[in-house]
Amino acid sequence: MWAFKSAGLKIALLSDFPPAQKGSVWGILSLCDAVLGSEEIGALKPSKYAFGNLSAALGVPYGRILYVGNSVAADIRGAKNAGMKTAYIMPLWRRLCGCPLPGADISFRTYRQLQKLVLPQRQ
Fold first, then answer.
1. What is the mean pLDDT of residues 79-106?
2. Percent over 70 (pLDDT), the chain
3. Neighbour count for residue 4 (Cβ, 10 Å)
4. What is the mean pLDDT of residues 15-30?
5. How many CA atoms are closer than 13 Å to the CA of 101, on its beta-carbon side?
6. Which end of the chain is more exposed for a tag (fewer CB within 10 A), N or C?
7. Given its phi and psi angles, is residue 87 left (phi above 0), alpha (psi -120 to 50 degrees) or beta?
8. Which of 72, 80, 62 is nearest to 100 (CA)?
């Protein structure tokens, strides 16, 4: 995540669960520009309202956001319906068979792979 932040990208956390708990588990809270939970915004993913709150909190238009998630229904379809680009972290079975998710803009195995796909390579 440091590489994304160093590249000048904004990082946010949108969760249907208490986001502070997830952020501390993942160790990314200190990197987040916005942290939103469904209880505070009054909507669960895949509601477009939830993703709209994320866009507003970041001050970034829907179409300029790459939403990363692991739930096809809540994360990928929800973000797509809101007009965002999507990146899907594949479960083990998809990794083993090499089957990307057809509805996602990016399907990836590890965050290191996502970094290589998203960030320009340094010469």
1. 94
2. 93
3. 19
4. 76
5. 25
6. C
7. beta
8. 72
pLDDT at 17: 85
Contacts 24+ apart (CB under 8 A), 109-114: 111/1, 114/68, 114/87, 114/89
Tokens of residue 19, six digits: 């986001």
Give this prediction's pTM. 0.90
At 85, list the tokens: 């680009």
If DSSP codes are grouped into helix, strand and coil, which group holds residue 58?
helix
Q: Which amino acid is at 69?
A: G
CA dist., res. 46 & res. 96, Å (int): 27
How many angstroms separate the first and last alpha carbons of the chain?
20
- Answer for the pair 76, 70: CB distance below 8 angstroms, yes or no: no
Residue in this structure with the two tokens 């001050």, named with its chain if needed: 59
User: 85-110 in b/e burial notation, b at 16+ Cβ within 10 A?
Assistant: bbbbbbeeeeeeeeeebeebbbbbee
- So what CATH class is 2-115? alpha beta
